Amino acid sequence: MLAQLRNVSLSFPDKKVLEDASLTVYPGDRISLVGENGVGKTSLFRILKGRLALDSGEVSLSRGVRIGHLEQDFAGMEENSRHTCMEVALEPFGPLIELEKYIEILASKLGEAGESERTSELLADLGEAQQRLEVSGGYEFRARTQSTLTGLGLSKAFWDRAVSDLSAGQRVRLALARLLLEDHDLILFDEPTNHLDVPAREWLEGHLAGIDAAYVLASHDRRFLDAVSSKVAHIDRGKLTVYSGDYTAFRQQLRQAEEEGWRRYEKSRKLAKKLQRQAQDYQRWSDAGEKKKRGAADKGFVSHKAAKVMKRSLVARRRMEEAGENARTEKPFEKDAVKIEFGTSRGRSLLRAEDIVVGYSEERPLTGELSLDLWAGDRLAVLGPNGCGKTALLRTVLGEIPPLHGDVHLAPSSKVGYFDQDNRLVPPDVTALEAVLGRGRDETLVRTVLGRMGVRRETVNKKVAKLSSGERAKVLLAGLILVDNNLLVLDEPTNYLDIETQDVLLEALRDFPGGILFVSHDRYFVEELATETLTPGLT
Which pTM does this prediction carry? Predict the structure, then answer.
């Protein structure tokens, strides 16, 4: 056992997060931690790191266990902001770097000593230091570091850049690289895939398959979870349940459990109705017997037979009440169903681009010549690694930046809804509810859609400026699918969405009658939605 939570409960002023949750992590475990945004996944990681006080329960760690932690959207390298990317990545190998320097000093002294009496002593020290370096992996750690950075999308061009010059996403990838290069017994990964393109996600899948450390990992990429999981810990309404197998196996088990729950519920309801009928029959017979006896001037006396009937009536009524109570307590949890009625798409041909070259300067184009023709009903996925020009292509067809070459034609009938991955398009000075109500839809429908998108009831009245990135993304997406657009341009819409919310979004987008041009690194989302794909770039 590396770490264990026993009957842990945790609450915040506005909600209960965990209730009697238990989890044991053993050496070699590969555990995916799943659940909707806000259910307590990040809190569970912080509990394991000793950074949150519990309401009740116990946390046990094995003696000397080394726990690494990648925090969600972690870019906290301010203390290293003047260091280069490579210097930060090499930090786990500080003792080996010091040993390298010591070997260089010994070699220099040996050269200066010539044939002196110190030569044999220096040779012995040098040999011993070189052996220690070899045994400790000192001849491989630089190659490992370079391979890890490259695998996570930080190519050689980034290695000499100061951390302060890296984007937030690049800093997260650097933090992930450094974590993977450290020695740990247990690693906690909080959303490691958020800033990774598909090649980097596939590299990380292969890397995790070969490490010795156990890990608990939260991600919203179900293809990734399938590749890296042997257990799934599911948090739902404060309860934590552990399932065997990968994410797909977990969903199957969860579906089976829900179906069994409904079967038990229906059985309880039928039993309650049967007992209710029995109780009514016994009561009717009892009343008839009593009336008959009273009619025979036998007032105040109930025959033995009538008494037995009354007793059966009482027993049947108690059984009916118990069965009815069981039926109420066993009813499976249901989310509010919502069906969004889209209008018909005005205009069949929505967008056409002919031989366009995308980029921010003539000297450094991001793509070669590209052409596309988007019609109502099309779902065109723009794919490729980070930096190949995907976002620039979306901004070009929207008219935010001009093409370096070629022409873009937006049909006069096109009504465009745009999701930008930085969520700049949500007004910061209104509440989440007001931001979506401004789109002209009924308040009940807006509240229902926001709820199904995972925006909690207490969040809808918060100012947008105070929302998290994920909450802003959900508000913007809810607004887009509720507005009468016929062309949606979506730049990584799933980045901050839990899988349950992704399913809601997918269902809505499948029914959308217009055209969709989108960028995503989520392989399942692309497979389920795209009718065709386009990969920009210079080759």
Answer: 0.83
Rounded to whole angstroms, the Cα distance separating 177 from 68 reads 12
Taking the C-alpha atoms of residue 342 and residue 484, their distance in angstroms, rounded to an integer, is: 7
d(CA 295, CA 301): 11
In the sheet with 532-534, reading across from the earlier edge strand, the strands are 416-419, 487-491, 515-519, 379-382, 532-534
The two tokens of residue 231 are: 């257990």
**162: helix, strand or coil:** strand
- Give the pairing type, strands 370-375 and 349-357: antiparallel
The tokens of 376 are what? 């109502």
Alpha-carbon distance of 38 to 455, in angstroms, equals 9
- CA 12 vs. chain centroid, Å, equals 21
Q: What are the tokens at 289?
A: 């017997």
Q: Which two tokens stand for residue 432?
A: 């989440």
Q: Is residue 12 classed as helix, strand or coil in its secondary structure?
A: strand
Residue range 276-332, pLDDT digits in tens = 776 666 667 666 665 665 555 455 555 566 666 666 666 766 766 666 565 554 666
Q: How many CB atoms lie within 10 A of CB 311?
A: 12
